[in-house]
Amino acid sequence: MSATENNTAGDDTTDNPVPAWARRTAGESRWAATAAIVGILALQFFLPEQFVPGPRWLVPSIGLVLLIVLIIGNPVRVDREEMRLRRLGLCLMALLGFAMVWSVAHLVRGLINGSVSDNAAGLLTSGGAVWLTNVLVFALWYWELDRGGPAARAHARKPYPDFLWVQMQNPDLADPEWEPEFPDYLYLSFTNATAFSPTDVMPMSRWAKSLMMAQSLISLITVSLVIARAINVLK
Predict the structure, then answer these.
(1) How confident is the model over 85-127, as pLDDT tens digits?
(2) Res 191: pLDDT
(3) Crossing angle of the two packed helices 58-73 and 31-46, in degrees rounded to 10
(4) 3-class secondary-structure state, position 203
(5) φ, ψ for residue 78 (rounded to 5)?
(6) Which residues lie below 8 Å from residue 161, measured CB to CB, with a gap of 6+?
(7) What ranges in the chain are assigned the alpha helix state H?
(8) At what angle do helices 58-73 and 83-113 cross, to 10 degrees?
(9) Residue among 27, 26, 21 at smallest CA distance from 176
(10) DSSP class of residue 202?
């Protein structure tokens, strides 16, 4: 084979570049996820006290402290792999998840025993806030856990995805620089909470399937009970 043929053969790799999700990248901006966290903390602060654990300032205060530390550790892009930051991130996710489950449990209990206000507008507002918290929290969980988290994804530590995105299934129709970022996980969470099943993003690992199943169940219970109670109040 001639040198020209060798060069041509070597250039074939440029026709099929490794997609960004499968190789090391600069890491995604942290601000979309940060906005979601702030949104959850704001919802927790403004929810009626019967739906929040402890004083209404408790969860937002702890969450803000953890968030500030994480921002200091990764101020612009989430690409720094450090065990302390990873543990703090998981602690923040656990805190938000606990607050969300508490809100759902107390909303459901109040709807069942009749202790929730008979104000249909207030009921729908509180129910909507709890449902939105569910969407945001699970979006953050998917984002934080998929392939080891955003920092691990930036370094391409795990080759096998926990979620199979359309862009992965059809690489010829996707930008080679595409990689899943928080808005993609927010879309996944929203569609799962409204359709109660996967739409175009398939869970691959068992933990992903379990989380999606739990989210669908929580969303179904919340929506059905809130709407039924509101209809009963409105007669």
Answers:
(1) 999 999 999 999 999 999 999 888 888 877 676 667 777 888 8
(2) 95
(3) 170
(4) strand
(5) -90, 85
(6) 21, 146, 147, 168, 204
(7) 3-11, 31-46, 58-73, 83-113, 120-145, 150-154, 166-169, 182-195, 206-234
(8) 160
(9) 21
(10) E
Q: Alpha-carbon distance 61 to 45, whole Å?
A: 10
Residue labelled with tokens 């929730």:
116
Q: Tell me how crowded residue 9 is: count the other CB atoms within 10 A of its CB.
A: 10
- Per-residue pLDDT for 8 more than 60? no
For 87, the 3-state DSSP assignment is helix
The pair phi, psi for residue 8, each rounded to 5°, is -65, -40
Q: Map residue 163 onto helix, strand or coil.
A: strand
3-state secondary structure of 11: helix
- CB distance 157 to 148 below 8 Å: yes
The residue assigned the tokens 């999606």 is 212
Mean pLDDT of 142-171: 91
Confidence of residue 7 (pLDDT cuts 50, 70, 90): very low
pLDDT at 174: 83
- Where does residue 58 fall: left (phi above 0), alpha (psi -120 to 50 degrees), or beta otherwise? alpha
